[in-house]
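Hi,

I'm pasting everything inline rather than attaching a file, because the server keeps stripping attachments. The sequence lines come first, and each chain or strand is labelled.
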Amino acid sequence: MAEKSPQELIQIDLTPPPRKWMNPAVDFEARRGTWSYPGGVKSLDYLGMPNVREWSPTDADWKLPENWQQIIHDGFKDLLKKYRTLEIFMDICVRCGACADKCHFFIGSGDPKNMPVLRAELLRSIYRKDFTAAGKILGSLAGARELTEEVLKEWYYYFFQCTECRRCSVYCPYGIDTAEITMMARELMNLVGLNINWIMEPVANCKRTGNHLGIQPHTYKDNVEFMCDELEDVTGIKLDPPINRKGAEILFVIPSADYFADPGTYTFVGYLMLFEHIGLDYTLSSYASDGGNFGLFNTAENMKKLNWKIYHEAKRLGVKWILGGECGHMWRVMHQYMDTMNGPADFLEVPRSPITGTVFENTTSTKMTHICEFTSDLIKHNKLKLDKSRNDQFRVTFHDSCNPARAMGFLEEPRYVIENVCNHFYEMPENTIREHTFCCAGGAGLGNDENMEMRMRGGLPRGNAVRWVRDHHGVNRLTCICAIDRATLPPLVEYWSPGVDVSGIHELVGNALIMEGEKERTTDIRGVPVQPEKGEQDDV
Amino acid sequence: MYDASKIVVGLAVFVVLATSPLWYNALSSASPAAPELSQPTNGSTECVEETAFMRANHMDLLDQWRDTVVRDDVRTYTSEMSGKTYTMSLSDTCLDCHSKKDQFCDACHTYSAVDPYCWTCHVVPEEAQ
Amino acid sequence: MGALISLVAVAAIVLLASVGASTGDGLRFVFGVILPGVAFAVFLGGIIFRVVHWAKSPVPFRIPTTTGQAKSLPWIHNNELEAPSGLPGVIGRMALEVLAFRSLFRNTRVEILPEKSKVNYIADKALWAAAMAFHWAMFIIVLRHFRFFVEPVPAWVEMLQSVDGFFQIGLPVYYGTTFLMVVGLAYLLARRFFDSKVRYISLPTDYFALYLLLGIALTGIVMRHIEKIDVVQVKAAIVGWASFQPAVPVGVGLWYFVHVTLVSALLIYFPFSKLLHAPGVFLSPTRNLANNNRVRRHINPWNPDIQGHSYAEWEDEFRDKLKASGYALEKE
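And the predicted assembly:
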């Protein structure tokens, strides 16, 4: 937890200092709590990454390869040839400043280099120097600067202080997407061996075991069985979910956190209860055991490698289509990258709900449907027996996760599910939800403990919005459809808005489902006794 | 994906629009030269003020004349150039020399797309038509 | 500092034009005919070069930023203008972006009240309004200038003039767009001076573009309303130039040369600067792509031919543990 109290942390001055931004100097020692540790040698070696070494951001010497400037220059050139986005985003920013106060990290820190425009300028200034005539001739007058070691250190600090949430790109008149710029910067830094462990270790784990957490298949099975045992205590029903079962109709892919830690595990059993309830012909996979993909936060190549297993496993198991669980960045990959990288999925069939007969026309190419699409279709067709009142102890709000909101346009489906499984649903203020949603400040690999102060700072806008619904509507449950959220929001709300719990949506679905042959529920699926609604509460 | 065809079409539209005046003129039969103004037929050799001043500022002078006549009932103008006096009248004084409205007023006004509102009140004298 | 350097640069251009125009017919020809010709060629060629350069890099991934509900289940109302599912929606979205600055219209201002532990977001449309005023006014002014560029003058130009001068204030009438352009530019410049965040991010070049545009607007106003020039000679000079019959402009005065030189500077500066946002916005992949990722496969021309860690490798590595846990295996 951050050492500063919320009252100390919120003393934020958004006025930038008078000095110019072009002379970088990041004091890593003084700024502990706001940056992440470098990638571990073991993970990097396993992945075959370039320029692996032991180093620390607090060292004066980062042990860069001798020709590091040339490496970055060549890498930059290569990326410009590969990505039109980079070309355009480097050339067309007018520095209107519309993005400036849209970043949660800027709002929470007041550090001017967290203004998206300036974050991009960190890269753009080098681009100008290396690749534009104006920059070469006019130098700093045209906003160009030399790539020095200090600049590189600044890159490391600020490009691992962006959660790639894309909120700024909503407001940019040209749609300049800082997530894309951050991804490019991370590609470049990666070339000279600058990356962070909270990304690289999961990537290495994921390559080896199939999931970020490094859970091996026997543990996978144990975890699933353990959760089912726990669930039996609540419902009286013993589930036996299929794993790696060939010939199932549907492969169900989830983020690994869902079978690893609370509160994701409750979401996980929510899925399983749903599938049991409707008698779905599906299978889990302990090989394709993570839909999440930290390659997205590292390099396009690693993203592709980690994502490759999804279609590979679908083919091996002979399923007809793929269903995906609640996860934000996983869905950015599944929606915007998977088909391009590892498609075409011509061996699969167009997803069709075996229960309602609905053909998911919006997934005809990837053949992968989101669990909330699937569930809302079931609810719409009255295929679920639900008792909303079982969630009456919860006054619920919904946190739009960045990627489903801003990379998929996935706004109504989760709300429809929530409104059908609970009676008390309250929206946070409109500038903090839907396409305007604020990040949990722990995405894109930044959800580690050493970065806690920055997470709490970046979490201020979200925390404040939660606090608002808590104070005005008595909200005590913050729902989301993202595994990173389920891991990073609990400390965030504990800090900024205590008294609110975090859960996935399918946990609430699990609570509300009336299972065949179940015993009377005296607790929710967390095992917390169900308290009857106390007295009159303001419902507005 | 490159979307090359869309970009080429977009660029073509841009180039055509940006160069449209060049095409327009090339296809137009009108002469680009400024209109030749007809010289006074009544023997007069000078205007009320310097020619250069008149070319750029005649509208101001006429505006001033109108206000002076209509509001102050003063009808005589003394030239700053020559000290001569003139009756402030568009129809009588101006058109006395510049006797053809279409060859004098309209030629330039049409050329430079100016639409003065003199003639919304004033009647064009028959001989000037 | 950057603001000052740019001011000096623009002042130097003005000075150069003034001196040149007062020196003799030779330099008048240079500033009145050759420079605009070169500038126009650089402008056209530069933009084509830049756009083609952009176009040579592919868009490897389809990454629209969705700002509304996507098309999914048939009973969920989708927002085609914010998360278009196909070309018509994209065209609508781009039209809104280009013509109405849709994204800028969303602008808010954040306010932190530490004593109340509160963060507020306040709608802030001033930037949008100023940007709209300036861009639209400039666009209409450019169109109005067609009266100098072509002969005969088409009816739509006269119509545009009469609408723009609807209030018939002053003689010659003041155009509404004159006011809007200057006020818009003044606001955009003022926020670079007085908004601490915008001041911090502003580069010298940001001021340069604004000064140029303001200089152009102000010299235009001078010629129309203050030190009036002989419009017929101006037209003769320009339409002659645009008919490939150039001649040394006569009887047009100093302001004309300053105006034309500033415009030339802007045209030359355009393809090497942030002014490329004009063509660039059309190519921005977060806006100009349909959010139909799961319906139509997007092709990446450099998609590397790499595979992940295969099931067989995985099974090999964990064989003993898989067996012990009773998994069905591909190879026993």
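The longest strand of chain A covers residues 250-253.

If the labels don't parse on your end, tell me and I'll reformat.
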